[in-house]
Amino acid sequence: MSTQSTPSLGIEFTTIRSVKDALTLASAQKYDFLVIPIIRKQYGTDLLTNYGSKQLAWPAIASRLKGVGESADMSTALVALIRHVVDVDSSNVHIRNKATKLLQEELAAAQYFSVARVIIRIRNGNITNLTRIAASTLNTLYFAYWFVFPTRVQSNSDDGDDDDAELQPWLWWNKIYKLLDYHGKVYPVLELSADVPSEQAQKRWLGEPVRAVILPTKIFTTNAKGFPVLSPAHQLFIIKLIKLKVQFIIKGINPRDSTLFEPYLQYLKHVTRQTEPTNRVLESFTHGYEDRLQVPLQPLADNLESRTYEIFEKDPIKYIQYEKAIYQALIEKYDQKKPVTIMVVGAGRGPLVNRALEAADRAKYNVHIYAVEKNPMAIISLHAQKQEWGNRVTIIHEDMRSWQPVCKADIMVSELLGSFGDNELSPECLDGAQRYLKDDGISIPYSYTSFICPIQSPRIFSELVYNRDANKPYYANFETPFVVYLHNCFFLAETKPLFTFTHPNFSNPIDNSRFGEVEFTIPTTGTMHGFAGFFDAKLYKDISISIEPNTHSKNLISWFPMFFPIREPITLSANSTIKVNFWRCCSSSQVWYEWTVVEPTTLPIHNPTGRSFSIGK
Amino acid sequence: MSTQSTPSLGIEFTTIRSVKDALTLASAQKYDFLVIPIIRKQYGTDLLTNYGSKQLAWPAIASRLKGVGESADMSTALVALIRHVVDVDSSNVHIRNKATKLLQEELAAAQYFSVARVIIRIRNGNITNLTRIAASTLNTLYFAYWFVFPTRVQSNSDDGDDDDAELQPWLWWNKIYKLLDYHGKVYPVLELSADVPSEQAQKRWLGEPVRAVILPTKIFTTNAKGFPVLSPAHQLFIIKLIKLKVQFIIKGINPRDSTLFEPYLQYLKHVTRQTEPTNRVLESFTHGYEDRLQVPLQPLADNLESRTYEIFEKDPIKYIQYEKAIYQALIEKYDQKKPVTIMVVGAGRGPLVNRALEAADRAKYNVHIYAVEKNPMAIISLHAQKQEWGNRVTIIHEDMRSWQPVCKADIMVSELLGSFGDNELSPECLDGAQRYLKDDGISIPYSYTSFICPIQSPRIFSELVYNRDANKPYYANFETPFVVYLHNCFFLAETKPLFTFTHPNFSNPIDNSRFGEVEFTIPTTGTMHGFAGFFDAKLYKDISISIEPNTHSKNLISWFPMFFPIREPITLSANSTIKVNFWRCCSSSQVWYEWTVVEPTTLPIHNPTGRSFSIGK
Fold first, then answer.
1. Annotated binding site for S-adenosyl-L-methionine: which residue ranges of A?
2. Locate the PRMT5 arginine-N-methyltransferase domain: which residues (chains A, B) (predicted)?
3. Which residues pair with A534 in a beta bridge?
4. ipTM above 0.95 for this complex
5. Tens of pLDDT along B72-113?
């Protein structure tokens, strides 16, 4: 099964005679849509000339669409190219007013013909009036705005700063998106040129909700067989864009045959095939979850469903690592002649029990396993396996924190980790269980560390802004950590470690509250919308499982990253410093995180007293 | 009647033997409250020493208050001085944890004894943990936090930057207030030193909700009569602080008599008398309205009440200016021998009709006045005066925009101005009325201009954050311009002009929409919370009325400034630039403003399509 379908493809015509003919041409060559100006150039000129002196008849504006533009299919087959937008930000009030009127009429025409997308080319950062007009239509007109940006500013001189030339268009977009308060009907579209963006610039754009990419025919070269192809560097960038599910627009004419567009489509289909996932396991696990916000599980407070266990048991690497760790611990630490007591605390449906048995069999050790589980439904699943396990396994239906066993464990095995390591209260659970770990007993895992990284993720921010729960305070969404498969985002810096927990913990009293201040230096300009969170857990010695990007265990799929939002996006220039404070707070019944940014600007403390999100003990 | 009552006064003791004796001493000398540490120093030392090894009995913490601290009066008579706060931000986790526990116990003790205010001295900017602990109590404990700041950092060397030494404490406060999201139970308290703050530093602090001022006895000198007095510069600053209704705290001992505090109280009473308002008219009009947010009147869409007219008719200067303008227009522009037609459009209860008659009498001109008014209730008031006016006045009950008169006006007099000039739709009304102004007729006023200025006003911002209407979207408060008598605020720059309207307006078509981009340079560090708005109106030639601070007409009391909020406070360093965009937008039935900031950061467009606030035509 291929999860990567062919992108939607369009052709842009800057001037056309007949809309009908153009549509026929495009659809004959298997293109999905057409980008055309919906008003005749003449109409704009007339209006600008006669502004104020007479009113033109409205229908004149879009007479070219009469007949063709009135069928229901038009909404998908046409993308309206909006002309005359530059002058709405003229410093001359008369030019500005005329241009505003014209733009408003163009948009009204697009609406009348049920166009679903309009394209507006942005050529500089002088865009506040244009953006205000867009803002005024967002809740009344139905189409989406596709703002087109070059990948670099055309500089007249050669002494221009290369980084800056690439940065400017992104700054224009950043300004538009902020002015429009991250509205969900607003997207950037990239128009590629012969110069491929630098890696940093690519990453920055890949963090934006890019909806389409315009490929001018002139950036294609011809291969040995006479077909149009792109340079390898272009192709690599395009492969990354395809993963964001962008659409493509071919612009300009085929120099070999002005009406032949199919070779470009063939080429893009060919490139798309190269984006087929190489890792089908990972792909099938993540597909459809890209950037989707999920409230973290609370397996301690809530009993998981069998289905949830089943999903996580499919992890191809996690249990291999546990088996390795148990095996290695057995042979390195224990005498093969003596029985070893292993307690699996939080046994769930039993996968770790199976792995412990396998490890013991492989090492030829005599083990007795206690499977401790509080979830009464999971206990049923455990008992179902009892026949197979025989006397080697004792099933205990108890909360590990209150169970009073008759003997102590040599090895205590648990998997109570959340995306942020401690966020499913592994520390609190294991602290409660270590009473029955022998003095020289070991915990698998014996240590885990959370990691954070500031990220640009406007798509997620937009979702937080617009999908507020009306029954909750306005800040609630921004004070809730989410589990999310981060896809359309840009990592602004290297991840850094935050909180570490080790087991067993012989401190007295044990204090699982934490405070951390972490500083990041941002190598290149971007906008921060929150922090990604990860963990790295040491099972036994250097046998570990990790979702921290630099040490991510291959094929480990059980955990998506965490996302901690911030209430206001912060645009950061290159080499600036972010200073963040994170707290892990504990009360008698709850654990929660609080966080804030204190540099380069100070934000309110997020989630004080766990008011928006906390984890029940 | 004095509107300035004596400030509440307290004495701070850093060490005392008996709370009861101290209270007796303070009240005998007419002080209102006492600032004392509520836990014994020894308790803190014990706790820090024994942390983790044993639990001290809780009551020990505040045993000194037993007996004295349990009466209801204590909540007002005592302010709890919190010790040991520095270590909660130690980088050493053990010290930090101990200090946190101690601080939490101190705060719990303050709560137990119903203390209404706690004082915490801030000595550097390393305060995130302290602030987090405060945040965690704000919604459960009842007392207010008074954070005490020096007016300048004590620098060890002489080469320190003077501005910076004054700026640092304010930055600490700014950080605390932002971290606590402008909570209404959090205040700054200033501790004065021998050095009086510079004028900029004074202004910045006067823009904060300063709740109290601590005066160490050592900054007083002794006057010829042997009484303690402050330097003239200190005194001037204190007079400004008294206007913010601060409380005063005397700290330290009287060098002449360690138990005698009354002379300080006498001195402060003496200074307070100097703050008595010199302008009783203005004072009586503004008293009680300081920083109170009012939704602007909409006299066009709503009919005003008689009471509202009555208040505004009390203005001691507005009508004098109108009379002057009409008089001057008559004698300069018209022939004394011919009758002059004056139309008062929007006549209300008739004050401008009276002034026009007085001007004509004084100039000895023969005038006929049409009093045009749409409000049916105001018409009753007009008719009540008809007998007195006789045939010289014709009362017309019509909307000026639709009235069809039989003759045209020489002079059209109106007062349709709002705090922002055009915000009560004077332009739309006068455009509709100018049909019946003679070709060479004049409008009084003939021009008005709105002005804006970025301001720091955390008190107002706090009100907007915490007094949200649960039935409105979360952003509504921040997209509504308010009328407000600005008091506890700091003007970050010079005001600049925005929109101008002139009458009569012979443009065709008339366009009353406007766009303005205004740049401000900020001379000194501050936090912007929004824009103040003003107007300046030209009645006839240079006869004007203005509320713009640089040209404010003396005693003009009818208009308080406008305030345009912004959604996120922006802290600006000295010499930074603010670039703001303002739009006046018009539809067939509504007029509204949209605004945003695009430098140094970009905010969302505020109030798009007038979604949160608009003015009905």
1. 309, 318-319, 373, 399-400
2. 283-444
3. A451
4. no
5. 666 788 899 997 787 899 999 988 988 898 898 888 888 887
